[in-house]
Each structure stands twice: as structure tokens, then as C-alpha cells.
Amino acid sequence: MGEKKRKEEVKKGFIFGHKNYKMMLIGLGLIALGFILMAGGGSDDPNVFDESIFNWRRIRLAPTLVLLGFAVEVYAILIDPNKEKNSKS
Question: 3-state DSSP call for residue 4?
Fold first, then answer.
């Protein structure tokens, strides 16, 4: 009898809610955009130095976007998906 009751209490469904998945996709997009902005900037000739590797976009903007994306991912994991359901009851 106890086992049957425990199985009934286990609810089936997703661990995260709709808002969690939406925030995870936003975070993943920010991380991908940061890595895309970091890419490139080489020289075909190894004897020629290319200054574009030190521009503002690659040194400041791209790493900031990656870190912001990771912060959004952590926030998305920590959001309580049942908060709306509990507050309405």
C-alpha cells in the first residue's frame, strides 16, 4: 500500500517550466554570440602582425557576453517553475 501511494505522489512532467527553458535558450544564445564575436582575426602570413586581434569587440564585448550568458543560465536553473502555481492557489 505504501509503495502504491508513493508512486501516485510522484508527478510526471518536466523538471523545469516554460520560463526556465526560455531563459536557458536566451543564455545559450548570448554564449554563442560571444564566441562568434571572439572568432576570427588572424593573418595569412605568420610573419605579419595583425592589430585587429586587440580590438574592443574581441577583448571586452565578447567575453562580457559569454559571462552574461553563463549568469543567465544559472538564473534559469534557479527559477522556481512552481512559483506561479503556488501563488495562485
Answer: helix
Report the distance separating Cα 67 and Cα 30, nearest Å: 9
**Cβ burial 22-45 (10 Å sphere, 16+ → b, else e):** ebbeebeebbebbeebbeeeeeee
Give the mean model confidence (pLDDT) for residues 10-20. 80
Q: Residue 18 is placed in which grid cell? A: 516554460
Give the range of the structural domain holding residue 69, as residue numbers without chain letter: 14-83
What's the number of domains the chain is made of?
1
Q: How confident is the model at residue 5 (pLDDT cuts 50, 70, 90)?
A: low
